[in-house]
Amino acid sequence: MSILVDFNNVPQRLLDFEARSYDERYNQSPLIRGLAYTLIALEWEGTPSILSDAFIPKPKDSDSFIATIERLGYRCDVTKLKTLEHIEGHPHPCFIEIENLTAIFLGTKDGKLILFDYTNNNTIEYPLCKKPCLLVSISEYSRLFREPPPESQDRSNWIKYAFYRYNNELKSLIILSFVISILGALQPFFIMSVYNFALTSSSQATLYWLTLFAVIVGFSEYFFKKMRVNIIATSGKDLAVHISQAVISKLLWLPYAMTSTAGVSSQLARLKDIDTFRRLVTAESTLSYFDMPFVIVFIVAIAIMSGTAALVVMAGLILMLVFCVYSRYIYSQATSKSSRANAMVSYQWNEILRGIKTIQGLPLLRVIQSRFSASHMQSTNDAENVAVTNSKVQAAGGSLIQVIGTASIVTAVIGVMDGTSDAGAMLATVILVWKALGPIMGIYNSISKFQSIKASSAQINNLMAMNDDKLTLEKSPPIRLFQGSIVGSGVSHRYTGAATGLTNLGFKIAPGAKVVICGPTGCGKTTLISILAGLEDRYQGAVSVDGYNIKQFNSYRYRTSINYIP
């Protein structure tokens, strides 16, 4: 019996996937059997357990098929045919959906479709009729080249590619924001029209028509705002879930040697980075970023009614922009000092916890206590400085916005007093000024988030740029089943700073044998077990299983082929 997967031995592959131990899994999710037949035809190197773990259940079988296939590294092509008569020449095997029937399309014979009904586990024939169908096939390119998606190739900018997935939604948000700005700029013109036309002519008909126009504009604005919020709620949630799943998956795929030495705080920090982007893509305040470019719409509307007021608003916006740059610089300085102090506190904690046995009972304890107290005090002071700086910046920015708005209103009032404008235009200008300042206030109030978003983005990009076990999965020989013969030759291992450890160890364990490893504390018993389990790869010598050096196998693939109970 072959230890590695033999792609040419299709009957054996089918027997592996039809093992009785998987009957319950197939009964729960029959599509897994259809996926298995499809992947065997593609000479997929995986095992039934890997397919079972990779399966993603969805309400529709077609969605489950696509999600699972893409999770395994392939790409899918979705084709909708108006009639089954056009199915000739379509690549197979592939998923097919005909009305209420879902199956695996295996080809055509004698004018009939050959389908594998994975629900009932049998092969059926279906006539070539004029019924429409949905086909989901694995692309020819991904069959030959299992290349990762672009965000995995340019891993230093992973966050950027994550947002590229939602280009259509971003375009929709931009268009909706522009339409909402146009409708928002029309509302003040209604007030101006009431003063200039309805009141001067004392015409109720004119008032009713203007009111009807205002109501239509108001409902339209509400409708488009609701559409925009729905996009944020749905696509934002999907993006947040995508980032969360990708980052958590990356953490789980990192080599054991890397995660075992990482501090708990550093791993929890990645969860905080996920939460930062979750709040960014799902919060309604994010809409201010889409409204900001279209402030120009309100400025144009102000210029139509009062050119001088528009100039004041423009000057105020430029002043606000300069102040934002300056305040961000001040805030960045404060947060960088606080970050250094927090890092020093974390370092002191790690030093204390890792060396607690050495520190206890020594005069060094007083030195550690004084260093920890000093770093903790500095961290507290810097955190207070950040809070004070943030409150000052927010107060100064709010006051500046109030000054800009007041100056614009005073300019509009002066225009009425000089006779260059009228009362209706003045009231409309007042409303437009605050509509123009609204997005700026929203962005300015979130200025403290810019630094955390930038830092979280850099941390996630650095994490996604790391090499993990998944990247080398396809390069590893596919394992079918180990017999269990283990041979060690010249195995040596030392932990950093340790004087003793495994030295030139040789052993041979027969399949099915029961072996006891004994020795004094610190001699390397746990380390040897970790080496045999594929958890520790920093050793010299060779460990072979059934004649294969375990280092030639991907760590994940090897660990899923053995049973290890810590």
From TrEMBL:
<feature type="transmembrane region" description="Helical">
    <location>
        <begin position="311"/>
        <end position="331"/>
    </location>
</feature>
<dbReference type="GO" id="GO:0005886">
    <property type="term" value="C:plasma membrane"/>
</dbReference>
<dbReference type="InterPro" id="IPR003439">
    <property type="entry name" value="ABC_transporter-like_ATP-bd"/>
</dbReference>
<keyword id="KW-0812">Transmembrane</keyword>
<keyword id="KW-1133">Transmembrane helix</keyword>
<dbReference type="InterPro" id="IPR027417">
    <property type="entry name" value="P-loop_NTPase"/>
</dbReference>
<feature type="transmembrane region" description="Helical">
    <location>
        <begin position="207"/>
        <end position="224"/>
    </location>
</feature>
<feature type="domain" description="ABC transmembrane type-1">
    <location>
        <begin position="173"/>
        <end position="452"/>
    </location>
</feature>
<dbReference type="InterPro" id="IPR036640">
    <property type="entry name" value="ABC1_TM_sf"/>
</dbReference>
<dbReference type="GO" id="GO:0034040">
    <property type="term" value="F:ATPase-coupled lipid transmembrane transporter activity"/>
</dbReference>
<feature type="transmembrane region" description="Helical">
    <location>
        <begin position="400"/>
        <end position="417"/>
    </location>
</feature>
<dbReference type="GO" id="GO:0016887">
    <property type="term" value="F:ATP hydrolysis activity"/>
</dbReference>
<dbReference type="GO" id="GO:0005524">
    <property type="term" value="F:ATP binding"/>
</dbReference>
<dbReference type="GO" id="GO:0140359">
    <property type="term" value="F:ABC-type transporter activity"/>
</dbReference>
<dbReference type="Pfam" id="PF00664">
    <property type="entry name" value="ABC_membrane"/>
</dbReference>
<protein>
    <submittedName>
        <fullName>ABC transporter transmembrane region family protein</fullName>
    </submittedName>
</protein>
<dbReference type="InterPro" id="IPR011527">
    <property type="entry name" value="ABC1_TM_dom"/>
</dbReference>
<keyword id="KW-0472">Membrane</keyword>
<feature type="transmembrane region" description="Helical">
    <location>
        <begin position="287"/>
        <end position="305"/>
    </location>
</feature>
<dbReference type="Pfam" id="PF00005">
    <property type="entry name" value="ABC_tran"/>
</dbReference>
<feature type="transmembrane region" description="Helical">
    <location>
        <begin position="173"/>
        <end position="195"/>
    </location>
</feature>
<dbReference type="InterPro" id="IPR039421">
    <property type="entry name" value="Type_1_exporter"/>
</dbReference>
<feature type="transmembrane region" description="Helical">
    <location>
        <begin position="423"/>
        <end position="444"/>
    </location>
</feature>
